[in-house]
Specification:
Length: about 300
């Protein structure tokens, strides 16, 4: 997987500083919009661990995302340093249980198996007391360790989401440069060759699957923390499809692609609501153009 060059990382760092300065000049609505894009980037980045590194496409990612979000609601309102690890561990354990079964299949069958498991998680929370019914439920935001006024909340959660995304991205950049990271990427290039070299391919795939699930749970936790609301819609398969669209738009082979794709998709969605009452039509046109003319995504536009 391509890690951004030094110039690219400087650009990303400048963008992060610009977002961090938003509390000084942006409105609460713009900060909320940026927070949504940051959570989307974190969710898409979790799926990029599978798609970009190992070449596996999973539709169960939304299930892990929803588990992380519902962990906040089910735990009540303990401190964030309690809810966050619980959400990550819960999603990671679910991926650990699902992974060995799903990874027995390949290609189209792997895709459909993960879709089936994702739908099972969806219906576990859909229209049940566990999930608060089909309409969802508002949650009391977890304690952050200090008092937050209503006017300061958008800025606080913006900076919190930005910090988490930067930490995860930096961690994945370091991981992809290790022997484990190279081994994961080797699976995408030539799985049979990696097996012939003595690597336990199934074990490496399971590691990637569990890591992706845990990061999706982290993204779900941050979404629930930011919005103060959870619903079974968070576990719907279309959430996984939306993350795939972010990766496609940003660039499948680049680690920073999901970040670019998430912000681009958020901008497209907002622009579509201003132009027409059918914003999904605008999204379809944009993605069709991206597939035809931007095969490597925004991260590889120079190609």
């Amino acid at each position: 997987m391509i890690v951004a060059s030094r110039t690219g990382q400087c650009v990303l760092g400048g963008a992060a500083l610009a977002i961090a300065s938003m509390p000084l000049w942006a409105s609460a609505w713009h900060m909320q919009l940026a927070s949504t894009a940051l959570v989307g980037a974190l969710f898409a980045l979790s799926l990029q661990v599978l798609v970009g590194a190992t070449g596996l496409v999973s539709l169960a990612q939304a299930g892990f995302f929803g588990l992380g979000a519902y962990a906040v609601q089910l735990l009540g309102s303990p401190p964030i340093w309690v809810t966050l690890p619980v959400a990550v561990v819960a999603a990671g354990l679910a991926a650990l249980l699902i992974g060995p079964l799903a990874l027995r299949t390949r290609g189209f069958f792997f895709l459909m198996t993960t879709l089936a498991f994702g739908q099972m998680l969806f219906f576990a929370f859909h229209d049940t007391p566990l999930g608060g019914g089909t309409d969802g439920v508002f949650i009391q935001r977890p304690f952050l360790g200090f008092a937050i006024s209503r006017t300061a909340r958008p800025a606080v959660f913006l900076l919190l989401n930005l910090g988490v995304l930067v930490a995860v991205y930096a961690g994945l950049c370091g991981l992809m440069r290790t022997m484990l990271g190279h081994a994961l990427q080797g699976i995408r290039s030539n799985e049979n060759r990696m097996a012939a070299l003595g690597h336990d391919v199934q074990r490496l795939k399971l590691i990637a699957f569990v890591l992706a699930g845990a990061l999706a749970g982290l993204a779900g936790h941050m979404a629930a923390l930011t919005d103060g609301f959870v619903s079974p819609d968070l576990l719907g398969w279309h959430r996984s499809a939306e993350a795939l669209l972010m990766i496609l738009l940003g660039g499948i082979g680049a680690l920073h692609g999901p970040i670019l794709g998430a912000f681009a998709l958020t901008a497209i969605q907002e622009a579509g609501t201003l132009v027409t009452d059918r914003p999904r039509l605008v999204e379809g046109v944009v993605f069709l153009a991206a597939v035809l003319f931007l095969r490597h995504g925004l991260a590889g536009w120079r190609r």
